Amino acid sequence: MAKFFSLFVMMALVLLPLIMMIPAYAFDCFHALQDVIPCQDYLVNGVSKPNEGCCKGVKDLATIANESSNERQSLCICLKSAAQHFPINEGKAKAMPKLCNVNLDITLAPNIDCNNKD
Asked: Record's superkingdom (predicted)?
């Protein structure tokens, strides 16, 4: 549990500048990252499939992504930034939406192209 909390705190501190640049009415990266915290065991710790909490978070992210092209692009940038700072298994990240039965083509990947996410 302490490792989980430490990861969450580190993620928040790393992304704080990004969060501060986003207008108040816009996308909230911090809350989006809270949706993927339950996915840590799957993405980082080697568990073979995402848990129920993780899949709920992925569904919430898909809802955000479908709100508007601005929300979709902001979500992409947020997840890309998080992936650049943490040892995420990219193959598992890419497979996660399908395993959760969610249609979402934005993944936690450090090299994802967010310019075409509109």
From this structure: Eukaryota
